[in-house]
Amino acid sequence: MRSQQRPGSEIGIAGHTTDQFSNPRSGPRRLRLLLGSMLGRAVLDAASSAADLPDVVPHSLRPTAASLAISAGANIKVVQRMLGHKTATPTLDLYGHLFDEDLDPVAAALNVKARAVADELRTFEAG
């Protein structure tokens, strides 16, 4: 559906009139978002074609971004915000299994701490 063009306004990006982008409530930000998403998509399309991966779409990269963030040590609240989830629940439902790898280092750290506390208690009782 083409928007009504007011006299004196030119047809701009994607069939929108230029005065739609100068709206004080949404203008410059809306234009930046539109240009950014168009440029980002063009770059992604070019890169995926060059890599012979024609079916790559931005949304398909979300799980990759989430799993890379988790493997880099990001906590669940960071991943939640990165993905735009309202709460951590959907993030944990989708990616919680990736945190299982964290169990061994946590168990080892707890073991070290428990031994240190036990040593302190023995020293305190002996003194």
Helix and strand content put the structural class at mainly alpha
Mean pLDDT: 74
Give the CA-CA distance, first to last residue: 85 Å
Give the proportion of residues in helices.
55-70%
Strand content: under 5%
Structure description:
- This protein is mostly helical.
- 58% of the residues lie in helices and 0% in strands.
- It is built from 5 helices and no strands.
- The protein is elongated.
- The model is unreliable at 8-23 (pLDDT under 50).
List its salient traits.
single chain, 5 helices, elongated, 127 residues, mainly alpha
Question: What's this entry about, in short?
Answer:
The protein is an all-alpha fold and 127 residues long.
List the helices and strands and how they pair.
Layout: H1 27-50, H2 62-71, H3 76-83, H4 88-95, H5 103-126
Helix pairs in contact: 2-3, 3-4
